[in-house]
Amino acid sequence: MADLPYFDLLMDERQDGGETGQLWEEQVHWGYWEDPKAADGTRADYIAAMKQMDVELLKAGKVADGQKLLDVGCGFGGTIQSINAAHSGMDITGLNIDPRQLAAAEAQTTAANGNTIGWVEADACDLPFEDNSFDRVLAVECIFHFPSREKFLAEAARVLKPGGYLAVSDFVPTMAFFAKTPIWVGVRSRIAKSYGTLGTVPIRSYKTLGKRAGLQLEANRNIRRNTLPTYPFLIKFFREQGSEDAKKTMVVGTRWIKWLTKAGLLQYRVYTFHKPA
Where does the record place the Methyltransferase type domain (predicted)? Predict the structure, then answer.
């Protein structure tokens, strides 16, 4: 299982009532602001932006009522809760390799609107489902923890029904060769102290990886600018409201991702793939 210091911290803080555990009680991802200048730096604003990120990913995945959907790397179930509230007649599966996250997700999620929700403990690169099982597959801000993006895309393509869609959000270097430089090797280790295991950055483009898996890249959207208010909010939050463990675990990695992003070396991209009918 991947080493994820921030989820270890969150599991402890959920037990102890810590502020960071409460902030990331449901969603555990960056926020999305249509107008980043309108961000006001409050907790309520950031939570709303995390929910809006879910909205953007559901649009990218063309999620609609009555679908059979797989949310890979589902965390505490925040994205599934968004789907559950906004759609009906859904058959939803949340998958994660960490049983602690699944237990927390199941405990705080109740199916509504005629939806059914199930939880599966498994590896995203070895999905325990039959071919052509799902109308939609989502991977919200988690694929960088997987051992291989290429293997995951191949597995997602396998379990998607013909005509189905996959939506992925990921941190992607602006220039592929940057991931091979000494700068990235050094920075990567600092980010890992906060956010843990980071899979190998592929040299091939997502379009090529998708094509090798039998998927067509339909949309490729860089929303780096829309995520920028995440960084000052989180760094201030950890410093002023976080526990000593939260400060020690989270500040360094978040600052390095902020630097890479503001320097234009790291993008936040949302991809939509289509499996041809």
Answer: 70-168
In sequence order, what are the beta bridge partners of 221?
Answer: 270
Q: Which residues contact 114 (CB under 8 A, 6 or more apart)?
A: 88, 89, 90
| DSSP secondary structure, 193-240, as one string | HHH---PPPPSS-HHHHHHHHT-EEEEEEE-HHHHTTHHHHHHHHHHH
Domains of the chain: 5-274 (3.40.50.150)
**Interatomic CA distance for residues 143 and 25, integer angstroms:** 20
The Cβ of residue 189 has, within 10 Å, a number of other Cβ atoms equal to 12
Distance in angstroms (rounded) separating the CA atoms of residues 41 and 57: 23
Backbone φ and ψ for 215, nearest 5 degrees, come out as -115, 145
| Distance in angstroms (rounded) separating the CA atoms of residues 88 and 68 | 11
266-274 β-sheet, strand order: 116-121, 91-96, 68-72, 134-139, 160-173, 266-274, 216-222
> 272: which strand partners?
167, 219
DSSP string, 62-98: T--TT-EEEEET-TTSHHHHHHHHH-SS-EEEEEES-
Measured CA distances, 191 to 22, 46, 111 (Å): 22, 21, 36
What would the two tokens of residue 172 be?
């992607």
- Token duo for residue 104: 């927390």
* Each residue's pLDDT tens digit, 7-23: 999 999 998 999 999 99
- Torsional sign, CA 235, 238, 241, 244: negative
Q: What does pTM read for this prediction? A: 0.95
CB 74 within 8 A of CB 99: no
| All residues at 6 or more sequence positions from 7 whose CB lies less than 8 Å from its CB, including other chains | 28, 98, 100, 101, 196
Half-sphere exposure of 53 (CA within 13 A, CB side): 34
